[in-house]
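Margin note from the TA: students keep mixing up input and output lines. Inputs are the sequences; the output is the structure of the whole complex. Example:
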Amino acid sequence: EPEVTQTPSHQVTQMGQEVILRCVPISNHLYFYWYRQILGQKVEFLVSFYNNEISEKSEIFDDQFSVERPDGSNFTLKIRSTKLEDSAMYFCASNTWTDNEQFFGPGTRLTVL
Amino acid sequence: GENVEQHPSTLSVQEGDSAVIKCTYSDSASNYFPWYKQELGKGPQLIIDIRSNVGEKKDQRIAVTLNKTAKHFSLHITETQPEDSAVYFCAASKYSGGGADGLTFGKGTHLIIQP
């Protein structure tokens, strides 16, 4: 069964450093998303992406964040200068044109020290 | 923006009993309501969803009901089993028949099935 994959599973970084989280969505999916989940809290929407541009973004997704689809398979989330409060689990998701069911990846745990 | 409230935060039931989790939403334009199950260390997995033109949907032991007037929807799990133990999240979005609509999640319910 096709699935969304994410790398790395755990990323540890120093405050102020840049990080790039990587996702490979399901191959025939056209819509891509990033969500985050701070430990013990709810999943929060960050951004959605379609046709090589951002479709929607939340208030959390400020100028420190950017997304990119650098090739035909990867979808990345970049945090330019990490802060302690960026520590969270980051989930990538994707869905097809005709179905709003979003398939989630296993997540990347980001720890900012 | 949309706000989704979910109750209870923790639910403990005896194996074989039923479990009910309730959510309310604020934006009357929301029309798509999925439920996700999250096991420890994994990403959320869709278990059932409902659109606003339907009042109830069933899939084996799982059912979801929607009351558009009251803006609330519920997840019902019957004949609970140990493998049902997990965190369950409700969510809401505006689905436009294809589109990158972000989901607004509730805070989650930790369901514990007691043997």
